[in-house]
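Question (not urgent): is this output format expected?
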Amino acid sequence: MNVIKKMLIAFGALTNLGSTTELLVQANSAIDNNDFETAKELFLSAFSNDKFRLKAGLKLLWLCRSKNLEIDFSTIITRLKCDFPNEAYVWMESARLNKIAGDFAQAFEDSKKAIELKPSILGAYQLLMSSSFVLNKTHETKEILDKKYPLLKNEEYFLKVYLSFYKSFKGEPGNLEIIDRIICDGGKGASDSDLISALRNNLDYLFQVKSNGKKLK
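Got this back:
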């Protein structure tokens, strides 16, 4: 579809349909027809409306991420964060796009914020975990995962992330809890044999924690 035709469709949606609600309907219809460029133009028009900015903005970020469309996602994210600072999915989309762009530091902070706002936003845990390995923030990630474990241990996706995080260190969660005691309080309450076993099986985790600036006892 050429540019002029796309412009006419967008103009028709704005004039004939007469409301931004119907504009969003047209945009979603364009997605159903795999006409993503037209959908982008329609969502950009809807984004200017305060009432529909969140829906249109999230769709634009999705188009940018999943369909590789050229969209100034940083400007959209900045506006959405300003207007909807407590909307977890805004931070989630920001984390996804920043990870794709290679900004792992921002992806880590965005995914952490999404989790704070909505602990059940499961995809954010995967983003948090994968970014933490690049940034050497595994200890902070472990604390977040352990804190949320009682709440989400019955969620299959969360449990998969939780266990894969620990298995990345070739150790089991129980052993790593012992190592945390070594780091935090000198291993009080753990027997010598437990400490030796945990240390032997999880040396790589110790080095990872050390790289996070934690002092080893």
